[in-house]
Design a protein that fits this description.
Blueprint (H helix, E strand, L loop, with lengths): L8 E5 L11 H9 L4 E5 L4 E5 L5 E5 L9 E5 L4 E5 L5 H14 L16 H7 L3 E4 L4 E4 L5 E5 L7 E7 L4 E8 L5 H12 L4 E4 L5 H4 L5 E4 L7 H15 L6
Antiparallel strand pairs: 1-12, 1-13, 2-3, 3-4, 4-5, 5-6, 6-11, 7-8, 8-9, 9-10, 10-11
Helix pairs in contact: 1-2, 2-4
Protein name: DUF317 domain-containing protein
Organism: Streptomyces rubradiris
Pfam family, one: SPDY
């Protein structure tokens, strides 16, 4: 087992185990700089609010929120809300945030921010997630069973993502989209969450149980004999063929 320095940059997969990361600008920056969303920032609390030019949607980043829901996207007429808790991977949140302008009718930069066309079933099958259906509900579970998307079309929260370890004892993060939220947002979030490509983190920013467990594949970003991403892909292939989790 490799011991990583706290400040060391690493690649982590699967990405739903990687925690939030610190690059909140990936979610907020494009809305501000490419799509002219206005923003207010309270340096004391870290609260950032973005408003769409049409005034129909806003995004809140609120790291002092008592219930842990640091990210809120809200739209009115129709009224819907998306919430993401503290440790939700930033890559999936950014994918949702960057899709908002197109869904509001602003097609600028659509070539740079593609929307996934894959249905939930397709994304699940492509990435090895299992699908279980009852009469009213579909449940998609990650290969390790720790990350679950529950899709219940008739519910108040039709899309519910949860990630936990040890049979739910330790819930790491949750994400929900309410009724009337565009299905494209759920598809976008799921596609970027289930993507097997690793994400970059400082080792110290990984959740404690990921740092000290065997569920995630962690490889150094530097000091690899080949490209770090090639090295990580090779380790993924070895791990898959071995049929058991291992940290590298």
């Amino acid at each position: 087992m490799t011991t990583f320095a706290p400040e060391g940059l690493v690649l982590v997969s699967p990405r739903y185990l990687a925690g939030s990361g610190t690059r909140i600008a990936d979610a907020l920056g494009p809305l501000i700089h490419l799509f002219d969303w206005s923003y207010d920032h309270d340096p004391a609390s870290g609260h950032i609010r973005l408003d769409s030019p049409c005034g129909s949607a806003f995004l809140d980043f609120e790291p002092t929120r008592f219930d842990g829901s640091w990210w809120t996207i809200r739209h009115h007429d129709p009224s819907w809300t998306a919430r993401f808790s503290r440790q939700t991977p930033i890559e999936a949140i950014a994918a949702v945030a960057q899709a908002l302008p197109q869904l509001l009718g602003d097609a600028r930069h659509a070539d740079r921010i593609p929307l996934t066309t894959s249905a939930l079933d397709q994304t699940a099958a492509l990435n090895g997630w299992t699908t279980t259906r009852t009469e009213t509900t579909t449940v998609y579970a990650s290969p390790d069973g720790h990350c679950v998307l529950t899709y219940e079309p008739g519910g108040e929260l039709p899309w519910r993502f949860t990630h936990s370890l040890y049979d739910g004892f330790d819930t790491e993060w949750t994400a929900t989209l309410s009724r009337d939220a565009p299905k494209e947002l759920a598809r976008q979030f799921f596609a970027h969450l289930a993507d097997p490509a690793p994400v970059e983190r400082l080792f110290k920013d990984l959740p404690y149980l990921v740092q000290h467990g065997s569920g995630a594949l962690i490889t150094p970003l530097a000091a690899a004999a080949v490209s770090p991403h090639v090295h990580h892909a090779a380790a993924q292939a070895t791990r898959t063929s071995a049929g058991r989790p291992q940290k590298r």
